[in-house]
Specification:
By secondary structure, the protein is mainly α. Helix 1 packs antiparallel against helix 2 and helix 5 runs antiparallel to helix 6.
């Protein structure tokens, strides 16, 4: 198991959050209370994002008591312990090469390929003021929405793992 600490890097959370929020502030230049609320929502998202990436993932935090009881030798601060499916299924070795990860890579790449190939069909149909009913759209009318949801689900499925 790696001894390099992958979580609890709070200075990185603060620095990265400030960089992104100040960058957004420089372009947005809020004037009304509504603008400030929008910036506050964006800032909250950025802080939550970097807290998950460098601070401590919520999934591991919520499961930390159970994980340390069930897997006493588990270092929950290491990067490899963030690959929860590998730990829960008792897989050994590099979790980036586990069957779960490899299958996830295939799903993500396949979904991105199908999404990108369907956009040309959609563009041509829109240009001709027609419905997209050829290519991948012959199978599903709302293909882009379905693929976007599937890709988001796959990233969420691997969320605590990356």
């Amino acid at each position: 198991m790696s001894t390099i600490q992958a979580y609890g890097l709070w200075p990185l959370v603060i620095v990265n959050s400030l960089i992104f929020i100040i960058f957004a502030l420089s372009f947005m230049q809020p004037k009304t209370s509504r603008d400030w609320r929008s910036l506050g929502g964006f800032a909250a998202f950025i802080v939550a994002l970097f807290t998950e990436m460098y601070g401590f993932p919520l999934t591991i935090y919520l499961l930390s008591g159970w994980l340390t009881d069930r897997y006493p030798g588990l270092d929950i601060y290491s990067h490899n312990s963030g690959h929860l499916w590998s730990d829960l299924l008792g897989m050994t070795g590099d979790p980036h090469l586990s069957p779960i990860h490899l299958f996830s890579y295939v799903l993500i790449l396949g979904g991105l390929y199908l999404l990108s190939s369907s956009w040309s069909v959609l563009y041509k149909a829109q240009k001709n003021h027609e419905l997209a009913i050829t290519g991948p759209y012959a199978m599903c009318a709302t293909l882009n929405m379905l693929l976007s949801c599937l890709l988001c689900w796959d990233f969420l499925y691997n969320g605590p793992q990356y």
